[in-house]
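TASK: fixed-backbone design
INPUT:
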């Protein structure tokens, strides 16, 4: 798992009316619209606290991770990106990021899409309706 926070430069932007919900909506919208990342949306979970975006889950490849990081870094008003609970590639089946067939997520975690996230974190998982496919 990566253990990093990337701080971005947002000094020139007016973000006084931008909420964390706005940022999550913008990021998830860009992921869903992306031809590479959209199909991976079930295992890319996005949260934002004080404009610090937290990614949890994984991408299928390192190049997909770089694509995701670039996409998030271009969303207006994002101050930083936390990838402490994010894998650049598919984690092994027994990873704590993945629900287990018999036991689900571990203590203190809940399932959000294909990912186990802390119980108190918001779940940004969204399903596409039949008309969106």
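OUTPUT:
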């Amino acid at each position: 798992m990566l253990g990093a926070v990337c701080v971005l430069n947002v000094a020139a932007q007016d973000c006084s009316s931008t909420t964390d919900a706005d940022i999550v909506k913008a990021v998830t919208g860009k992921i869903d619209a992306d031809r590479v990342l959209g199909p991976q949306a079930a295992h890319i979970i996005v949260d934002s606290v004080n404009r610090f975006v937290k990614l949890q889950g994984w991408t299928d490849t390192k190049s997909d991770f770089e694509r995701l990081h670039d996409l998030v870094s271009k969303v207006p008003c994002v101050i930083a990106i936390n990838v402490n609970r994010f894998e650049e590639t598919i984690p092994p089946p027994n990873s704590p990021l993945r629900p287990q067939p018999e036991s689900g997520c571990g203590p203190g975690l809940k399932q959000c899409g294909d990912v186990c996230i802390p119980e108190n974190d918001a779940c940004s998982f969204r399903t596409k309706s039949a008309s969106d496919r």
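COMMENT: The helical segments are 20-33, 62-73.
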